[in-house]
Amino acid sequence: MKKIRAFTLSVLMVLSLLMIPSYEVQAANVSLSVSASTVNIGDTVKVTVSVPDGTTATVDLNDWSNVLSFSSSSVDVGTNGGTITINLGKMSMANSNSVTITFKANTSGIANIKATVVSAVDNNTVEDVALGGASTTIKVENKTTDTGNNGGTTTTPQLSADNSLSSLKLS
Question: Which residues contact 110 (CB under 8 A, 6 or more apart)?
Fold first, then answer.
């Protein structure tokens, strides 16, 4: 009798373990894409910020203001110095999983744009979810783009406007 009871308990334990649902957990991240990775001074560049389907998130963009300036965006965003705050997802006012930000290149250098997730929720369960951030790099070259009369474009180095020698003294 003890053997039958032990066997029955063993079978029930195995069956109970098989009935536990398993979930596949996938790491999700914000994504950044750029219209050009290298631009000239005066050019504009577009950065698209996206969150996975089924997610609503608040994302901050940082570290771009050293060589770029904010021009516009496809939805209303919050700007505070060198930080742009974006609300993305179907439950946000943007009602979209992606937003495009347009920047103007002001000076030569490297813009290391970082997207940091402030908060994120799953649209189905309305529970917090973990989203990873993202980063991208835009190089601004020391050139300006001029459109000539013949319709072509040329690039010339951006030179200093102060080219006088009036302050030069010989000793």
Answer: 66, 67, 137, 138, 139, 140
Backbone angles phi, psi at 84, to 5 degrees: -115, 125
Q: What count of other Cβ atoms lies within 10 Å of the Cβ of residue 103?
A: 28
Q: C-alpha distances in angstroms, 61 versus 7, 19, 84, 113, 120?
A: 60, 44, 5, 7, 15
Closest CA to 75 of 53, 55, 51, 102: 102
Element (H, E) at 60: strand 55-62
pTM attached to this predicted model: 0.70
107 and 20 Cβ atoms separated by less than 8 Å: no
Torsion sign across C-alpha atoms 94, 132, 36, 85 = positive
11 Cα distance to chain centroid: 52
Question: CB count, 10 Å around CB of 137?
Answer: 13
Helix (H) or strand (E) holding 4: helix 2-18
User: Using one digit for the tens of pLDDT, what is the confidence trace for 74-87?
Assistant: 988 888 888 999 99
CB 30 within 8 Å of CB 115? yes
d(CA 43, CA 106) in angstroms, rounded, equals: 8
